[in-house]
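Lab notebook, bench 4. Still working through the backlog of constructs that have no structural model yet. Next entry is a single chain of 308 residues. Request: give me the structure tokens for it.
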Amino acid sequence: MTTGWTASDIPDQSGRTAVVTGANSGIGLVTARELARRGARVVLACRSEQRGKEAAARITRELPGALVVFTPLDLADLSSIRDFANSYAYDRLDLLINNAGVMALPYGRTADGFEMQFGVNHLGHFALTGLLLPHLLRTPEARVVTVSSGLHALSNIDIGDLNSERGYRRWIAYGRSKTANLLFTHELAGRLAAAGSDVVAAAAHPGYASTNLQSAGVRMEGRRAAERIVALGNRIVAQPAESGALPTLYAATAPGVRPDSFTGPKFQGWRGAPAKSWRAAWTTNDVASERLWVASEQLTGVTYEGFK
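Model written out:
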């Protein structure tokens, strides 16, 4: 990878269409904005209609003429995911950026009864990718970029307890969901290759970036002291969202990105230019990735069409 790669190195994206989940704030907003800056049509797939429309307006104010549109998507609700996929009206899908996520929330369940972090971070994106797969397969050189985390190293998945029903520890559950992102990428890349498809499935992580993600859990619980500590860390230690988005943008647009690659910040996985990132050995385990895939199909009811 090129040392010092920045958003100015993004190739021209004119004529391309991108879907970015969670594009209303943080690295998702930056990702959508920079793709639009380079000429892509960008679909902002967000749960909140108000925040999604505000994000679209913000981008067009900064970039007059930018091709951005908000479409509602709640990754915690399979019916919303199906509605989004059914309403997708474009003839191509060049980039699917599975960016949205939740972190270290108190225990909760999605509309379909899944543990919230596993349900949103993995199952929601698994279902979305599968339902949009026909568009990806017919678009030359399309890419699927799934945003994981260096904190995947906190825990491997527990295939016998994917919904944390035997006990819930918020950070372990988060780590498992991020491991699931990497196992999904690994299995998807392998299945695409076996089918002879040129769609690239890759993963990225932002390092420590200042976004709303870190404070959501403590805010939900009314832990004001913890929220102030998180805010202080974001202000003093974290890198800005603009830097945190670079690994995702690299994985989505840079020439020569390899399937099943994992891009993150260069400096100790925390900040700096995009580079090849370390991943735990279990995230490339073929048996685990296949078992998770089968379980994910059963849980979501989404069977990937076009290849086996």
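Notes after review: The radius of gyration is 18 Å. DSSP finds ten helices and eight strands in the chain. Flag for follow-up if needed.
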